[in-house]
Amino acid sequence: MAPPNPCLRVPAAVFVPTVLLGFLLLVQVSLASDTSDLISAYNITWKSIDFKTILEWEPKPVNYVYTVEISARWGDWKKKCFHTKKTECDLTDEMTNLRERYIARILSEKPIKSDEDPEESQHANAPYFTPYLDTNLGQPRIQNFQQNGTKLKVTVQDSITPFRINGNFQTLRQIFQQDLTYILYYWKASSTGKKSVRTDTNEFLVDVDKGENYCFNIQAFIPSRRAKQKSPESEIRCTSQEKAVFKELFFIVGAVLFVIIILVIILSVTLHKCSKARAKRDRKENAPLNFA
Fold first, then answer.
1. φ and ψ at 114, to 5 degrees?
2. HSE (CB half, 13 Å, CA atoms) of 271?
3. For the CA atoms of 15, 19, 21, 23, what is the dihedral angle to 10 degrees?
4. pLDDT at res. 27
């Protein structure tokens, strides 16, 4: 039998599909090489305190950039932080309806020049975010406090948020209104036993023991929320009855000294008038008699 001829031609029915398959593989490899260094964002989290809201993610980009898009539930996508190499984006100003549910996504894409067409990008979705429900409450501040006898009065200073209505920045109280509650924790400075009271205003007035020093702090609370209900507690403040007693004593001593000074002045004026009257009377008595 004659050996097979290596120069025999491959049938066209076999050759054409093979060439076509090879071409498709080359195209796929080429496309993959164009986007192989694009990495989708991950560990995407919202950082929001008192409605100051920033979207954060990983990783740091290499040979590509990020663009963030945000949309209300039924709205259009709006681009923010366009072609940035940062891994965060401030979206505070885009959340104009605090009760709306917002959607955000992060695009990983090649940087382009003005005369180039945009290349393929990859995107990753952020969790849904509703500012009214999801922003964290910041640490509250005590505006002033005063203990007077058996009454302790504490006033809370509302935080100013970046949310504006008609150009005016709104406070937490203006936004949450009656949904916002403050809790006052207070205890004797010489004891560890705590008491607490709540108010849906910004003032506390509680009964305490006269002559005792008290320490206290406050916490913001939104009972209507299922999560993120409470803020961090404020710094601890304490009253000082010694200062109050000294102040009262200072006023008492001052009042007594004032009365004494007035009495001394009155007495001095009276004695001076009496002395003048006596001298005048003595002159009359010692004057020589006139005879006709």
1. -65, -30
2. 6
3. -170
4. 41
Phi-psi region of 248 (alpha: psi -120 to 50; beta: other; left: phi over 0): alpha
| Predicted TM-score (pTM) of this structure | 0.69
What pLDDT does 282 receive? 67
Residue 72 CB partners (closer than 8 Å, separation 6+): 97, 100, 101, 102, 103
Query: Is residue 65 within 8 Å of residue 118, measured between CB atoms?
Result: no
Residue range 245-291, pLDDT digits in tens: 455 556 677 777 888 888 888 888 888 778 777 777 766 666 665 54
Q: How many CB atoms lie within 10 A of CB 137?
A: 21
Say if strands 151-157 and 203-207 run parallel, antiparallel, or are unpaired: antiparallel
Q: Quick: pLDDT tens for 154-171.
A: 999 999 999 999 999 999
The residue assigned the tokens 């009495």 is 263
